[in-house]
Amino acid sequence: MMLPLAQSRADEASQNLVLVGEDEWYPYAALKDGKLQGLAVDILEAAYAAVNVKVSFKSAPYARCLMLAESGQEVGCFDSLKDSKLMKTLRFHQEPIFRAEIGIYARADSIELNLKPAALKGKIVGVTHGYTYTDEVDNDISITREVAPTDLSNLRKLVLKRSDYALIYTRVMDYLMSKHAGDLAGKLRQVGSIGQNDLYVSFSKKHPDALKFSILLDQGLRKIKANGLYHKLEQKWRIPNEH
Known about the structure:
Shape: globular
Low-confidence stretches: 1-13
Order of helices and strands: HEEEEHEHEHEEEHEHEHHEHH
Strand content: 25-35%
Pfam family, one: SBP_bac_3
Number of strands: 12
Protein name: Transporter substrate-binding domain-containing protein
CATH class of the largest domain: Alpha Beta
InterPro entries: Solute-binding_3/MltF_N
Oligomer: single chain
Structural class: alpha/beta
CATH architecture of the largest domain: 3-Layer(aba) Sandwich
Number of domains: 2
Organism: Undibacterium fentianense
Keywords: Signal
C-alpha cells in the first residue's frame, strides 16, 4: 500500500506541466533574456496557478512546436488558431487564451484600404512557416504563398517586392516596426484585416496528460477572468516595448 507521503509526492508531481511556446512571436511569446516571455506566457502561468498547477516553458520555432505536440513528445504548443487543419491532429480547450487581429500589409505606396480575405485571391501572399491563417485563407488554392521562416523575414520579402501582401498579427507588427525601424519604418502599411481570432494551446492527442491539462486550463482561465487578474495581465502587456 502506498504511504501517505509517497501519495502526496505523486500527486504533487502530477501537477507539474511543461508547455512549448514559440520562440519569436513577441509580445505573445518569445525567447528573451534566456527565457520565454510574453502575454500568453503570463496568462498561462496565472491560469494554471489558479488550479494548483506549476507550468514551465520550453521554446521552439512554431512549426517544430506543433510537431512536438502532434507526435506526443510534448503536452502542448502555443499559440494556435483552432482551425480545421490543426483540429485533425491536435486537441483544443474551450476558453481562448486571448484574441488577436491578423493584419494584411502592403508596401507604403499602396492605395488600397479595408481589404478582406477575398482580396488575396490570385495574389502572392507572404506567410510564415508553420502558421495557419483561418480556414478561409488556408483553403484558398488561388493564393500563391511566399513562405518565410519568421514574420520579420516575411516583411522583408514584402519590402523587396517578393510578395504582394504579408499576413502578420497587428501587435507583432507593431513590435517589429519599432524593433527594426531601420528596415521597415515608412516602407509598409496595413491595408486590411483577416479579422479578430481566438488563440489557444494546441494540446497533443497522443500525450497521456494532455486531456487533463486542457480541462484544467479552461478552469484556470475562467477563474482569472472572473477575479480580474486576466485584465491586469492584459494591461501589463498593453505596451510591450516597456518590457
